[in-house]
Amino acid sequence: MLIIKFKKVVIVFMRRVISLMISITILILFNINDLTLAADDDNISNFSVDIKKFNINNNGLNPIETSKGINDALNYALKNKYDKITFPKGEYCISEENPITMVSNLIVDLNGSTFKVNDNGLQHYTVIDFSNCSNSQLINGIILGDRETHDYKTIEGSHEWTCGIVFNNCDNCILDNVTVSSFPGYGISSSLGENLSDLIIGVTKDNLSIGNISDKGKLNSKRGTIRTIDPLNISNVGGEFELGYNKGYMGYPYMQSKAYSAYFYDENMKFISKVDNCKQYKKVLIPDKAKYVHFVFKQDYLPSNGDTDFNGTTVFLTNYSSPNNITIRNCTIEKNRSLGMGICGGRNFTIKNNTFKENGGGAPGYAIDLEDGWEYMDSFLFKNNKFIGNNNDIVSCAGDNIIFENNSFTSTVYMWGRTTNYKFLNNSFSNIAMNINYEYSTDTECSGNTYNNCRIAITSKNKDAEFNINNENIIDTHVNTMPENVSIIDSKITADNIDNIRIYGNFKDCHISKVTGSLVSFKGENCKINNSNIYIQEEVNFKENNIEDTNIASFTTTEKITLDNNQLKNTKISLSTWGCPTEVLLKNNTISIDKDSLLHLSAGVTKEVILDNNTIENNSNKSLINLFDTSYTKAKGKLILKNNTINQGNSDYIFDGVKIESGEFDFIYNNNHINGAKLINPIYKQMKCFNVQEK
């Protein structure tokens, strides 16, 4: 078969015309009916499949013959060096025992057709298999499972490994404009691929000692690191390798140091070169002529044990041909029972502009699950994807360099602490019933995201790691927990449509408005807080904030309220009757009020209230401090005013309110400058249980 490809030429118009005429003449002479010339602009040779020639059925029948015929057609296109193969429109029934195996350097255009798996009851099957291929593309069609008609009973089990599309050992492959729907297991999955290394054991415990290796490859006994005693033979591992513990749940069970250096030697143990700053589970290229390798691990103690099934191996030397440089774009992944996408290995994935819809119903029950590949999953970008109606959206159990950007989530997102160096940038989260869980063990970034009607929990798994969360828009959303060393920075927090919101932790340079709910162990610094009704739980601290038109009230768990160096306008602080005994410190604040009293005190819960060095303008017709209740609790408290400047012209007394009939209440004042009003209503001086002192 003669294949003619036209390439773009920019020489002269006549040369292109002559080339086209020659090609047409050849086609006529040789009567090549199955060769179609692509447009010159596409520069692609396309094979339009003759389904009769390959014994393929496109009306949903004959799965065994159809699967064989499709694979034969793909191999025919490969053999004859076509760039693209196009199938006639229709429904193709695919045998559950004979997947369609992608071939290299070929675009497979389904042309709007459906590849549907034959109804079955198997625990494992695949419809489209990306194995041992590179530069392969599957475009423009539907891959359909048998979720509704699958036999789940005859063969007992989860049936989760019934998959639509599987990426095995493949490179530079694309899935574009494909719908993957209704599989009992996973719509799309990836694997670790084949381990090309011939080494059964790796770095054993007995092959390690305290020591280092010089830049010239000489072994020594310097302390501070550990090194191999005998080198490993890498002549048959496939040109590159990674170190890691590839058994069970992987991780770092024996060798805790993630960082190491590799020293390469030739067949005569002559030093070749050193590769520094290697990390476990990351690929390392083997230099030319290298046959042996030594390792230096950046930890100062020897492992206490190793894998007893493999001679005490602490880390294995592997070379997985994991799927690499994979793009999944413009696809719909929907109605798959276990997972929309199960990531079980791979590197450098780009997953963008897809819709994940109505996945779940069986375990694990997520749109996307990054799990079984553990630390062998590296560099995944999820961008501009939509998640709609899934049981849960994302769970990431491990992996490194995972980025979520400009996605819209509507259900649970759970990042486990084994996922390292991940980022959430400019995503939207809305109507999420369960928490958005950010566990982290390495430096992590969340920036520019919008949360609407969600719950956020931030949990540290490494006290030395930093969690940078800034420029967030948090709407009607609970912030349930965060570590003491984490602050939400330069963000907006509003709760206009929900009461009893919970906001926990540290906030800096934020705008908090229209919030009705609880601040729990809250620290606000340089924030703007306005139009809010806030209950205090545990201990809170406001420092250098601008607080306006806001009510702050104690609760049954309130311990202390501190306001230091704030600007307060029409802000009311209440120690409520049903609260617990509470301390309040107002220090160095600038305060103005024209609507109501600044402090509303219930005598029995005023444990200690201190106003120190504040500048106060009270333009309301109420006293600055109002003792509003003594009915339900016996008075037991202390109020201290010192070093304040108070201007009050529309009310007679700074302190006023109801009588105290029982208990004991101390009123202490010193060095205050008061204009326009008297310090205290004189009726309190006549009460036996009210003690007025100047100190």
Report on this model:
With 695 residues, the protein is mostly beta strands. Helix content is 5%, strand content 47%. It contains 2 helices and 71 strands. The strands form 6 sheets. The chain has a 35-stranded mixed β-sheet that branches. Strands 36-39-42-45-48-50-52-54-57-60-63-66-69 form a 13-stranded parallel β-sheet, with no helix packed on it. The termini are far apart.
Task: Outline the fold blueprint.
Elements: H1 13-30, E1 36-37, E2 45-48, H2 63-79, E3 84-86, E4 91-94, E5 100-101, E6 107-109, E7 114-117, E8 124-130, E9 133-134, E10 137-144, E11 161-167, E12 170-181, E13 186-190, E14 203-204, E15 208-210, E16 212-213, E17 219-220, E18 226-228, E19 232-233, E20 240-244, E21 259-265, E22 271-279, E23 284-285, E24 292-297, E25 313-318, E26 324-329, E27 332-334, E28 339-343, E29 346-352, E30 355-357, E31 366-370, E32 377-383, E33 386-388, E34 394-396, E35 400-405, E36 408-409, E37 413-415, E38 423-425, E39 428-430, E40 435-440, E41 444-447, E42 450-452, E43 455-460, E44 467-470, E45 473-475, E46 478-481, E47 487-489, E48 492-494, E49 501-508, E50 511-513, E51 516-525, E52 528-530, E53 533-543, E54 546-548, E55 551-553, E56 558-564, E57 567-569, E58 572-575, E59 582-587, E60 590-593, E61 599-602, E62 606-612, E63 615-618, E64 625-629, E65 635-642, E66 645-648, E67 653-657, E68 663-670, E69 673-675, E70 678-680, E71 690-694
Parallel strand pairs: 2-3, 3-6, 4-7, 5-8, 6-10, 7-10, 8-11, 9-12, 10-12, 11-13, 12-26, 12-27, 13-28, 26-29, 27-30, 28-31, 29-32, 30-33, 31-34, 32-35, 34-37, 35-38, 36-39, 37-40, 38-41, 39-42, 40-43, 41-44, 42-45, 43-46, 44-47, 45-48, 47-49, 48-50, 49-51, 50-52, 51-53, 52-54, 53-55, 53-56, ...
Antiparallel strand pairs: 1-2, 14-25, 15-18, 16-17, 18-24, 19-24, 20-23, 20-25, 21-22, 21-24
